[in-house]
Amino acid sequence: MNIQEYIASGILESYWAGELSDEEMQEVDAMAVRYPEIAAELDELRNVLISLANSQAGAEDSAVLDLVTSTIRDEEKEAFLRAIDEPETQIKKIRVIPRWITAAAVLLFLSIAFNVYFFLRMQSAKDDVRRIAAENSKMAYKIESTQQELDYAELRVAHFLNDDNIHVRLDGSELSPKSFANVFWNKNTNAVFISVDNLPEPPKGHQYQLWAIKPGQAPIDAGIFDHNQLVQELKVIKGEVQAFAITLEEEGGTPVATVDQTYARGFLKKS
């Protein structure tokens, strides 16, 4: 539990303001027993209330008297002032102070209550903003993903329809039967393009590499690629090619193919 977030929530102020239910009050008491930081914060808030009340205890009575005498007629003021100076009235006069203190405490509680209310409203507004931002972010991500899929489909179709391209489908090996990809080898430029359709997530520190297979030669590096990207252009491969294969290699690629890590392979159709 985040103690600071709990303290900042305003629930301790509501505790002293008397705005919590019995169950909520008991919960705060339990939290204070369990967490010394919360108990210290409750004590500090209580001391603030006591200090505020004490600061008003020595206030001049003239303000109270002015308030009272302003509500009666002039001819009654003299009799009223004489009456409150009599010994029997002194006790009643002193009793004004506790009421003043109580009023100050009530005002403080009301102030705390309003602060808590607006704090909660502000938190709710922040939550709404975060929720809307998250929804907008998800929508933007979906739009971007859809656009990428459309771009991917458009590129694939363009390569399939290009008469200058030789299309080679690479099917999964025994190591990864569900894997497959499509390679397009341009007859004029000798450029190699790969369309990654289904390859498993490579282990950390590894990536996939494409190889061109020529008769009587070791596999020729045709380039490393990102299995999450769209159609990618790799290296230029010249000469007679019989097949293409994909292996899993250490990140950055290798000049020599790890044949036992072949994930997919495909052969050119004989003309």
Automatic annotation (TrEMBL):
<keyword id="KW-0472">Membrane</keyword>
<dbReference type="GO" id="GO:0006417">
    <property type="term" value="P:regulation of translation"/>
</dbReference>
<keyword id="KW-1133">Transmembrane helix</keyword>
<dbReference type="InterPro" id="IPR051474">
    <property type="entry name" value="Anti-sigma-K/W_factor"/>
</dbReference>
<dbReference type="Pfam" id="PF10099">
    <property type="entry name" value="RskA_C"/>
</dbReference>
<protein>
    <recommendedName>
        <fullName>Anti-sigma K factor RskA C-terminal domain-containing protein</fullName>
    </recommendedName>
</protein>
<feature type="domain" description="Anti-sigma K factor RskA C-terminal">
    <location>
        <begin position="103"/>
        <end position="258"/>
    </location>
</feature>
<keyword id="KW-0812">Transmembrane</keyword>
<dbReference type="InterPro" id="IPR018764">
    <property type="entry name" value="RskA_C"/>
</dbReference>
<dbReference type="GO" id="GO:0016989">
    <property type="term" value="F:sigma factor antagonist activity"/>
</dbReference>
<feature type="transmembrane region" description="Helical">
    <location>
        <begin position="100"/>
        <end position="120"/>
    </location>
</feature>
<dbReference type="GO" id="GO:0005886">
    <property type="term" value="C:plasma membrane"/>
</dbReference>
